[in-house]
Amino acid sequence: MRNTVHVLLVLAALAILAYPAALAVDSAYGRDVYLLSAMNDDDTVALNRAIHAVDEGAPRAERLRAVVEIYGSSPTLETERVLLLDDAHAIRPDEMPDITLLPAGSAGGEYPVQTQSVLFTAQRVSFAGFVAAILLLLVRRFVVRKGG
Question: Rounded to the nearest 5 degrees, what angle is found at the Cα of 44, between the Cα atoms of 39 and 47?
Fold first, then answer.
């Protein structure tokens, strides 16, 4: 019976703590980045900087598009929230230091873990933990009544 109580406590703790833990990980390591699907080499970046001057007076979307073209290419110009445990591959362009570019997959980078995936998994773990804890509690009560 004591083992049942321990398992019940572990499952309940897992269910309660999974989502807050995922939020804490996102808070500590989550970054909004623009994912690059193709990455230019250093010589091409230097050439693109010389050719494509980024107009500081242009709308943000135009400046963003120009900066992304200097460093590589991206299928969309939308940010993705990813977990960056190491900023070694992140690029903070001189032209727009407030953004972060991240080469991903075929661009020579890793496949980053999206915060959305972590939160989705945490929700499922919480739900499974609650269900398992409730089922274990019901089984324990049933066994105690039958045995006692």
Answer: 140
Beta-bridged to residue 73, according to DSSP, are 38
Query: Could you tell me if 78 and 41 are in contact, meaning their C-beta atoms sit under 8 angstroms apart?
Result: no
Whole-prediction pTM value?
A: 0.75
CA–CA dist 120, 88 (Å, integer):
27
Contacts for 101-105 with beta carbons within 8 Å, 24 or more apart?
Answer: 101/33, 101/34, 101/36, 101/67, 101/68, 101/71, 101/72, 102/33, 102/34, 102/35, 102/36, 103/35, 103/36, 103/39, 103/72, 104/35, 104/36, 104/37, 105/37
End-to-end, the C-alpha distance of the chain in Å comes to: 12
- What letter would DSSP give residue 112? P
Q: Does residue 74 have a pLDDT over 80?
A: yes
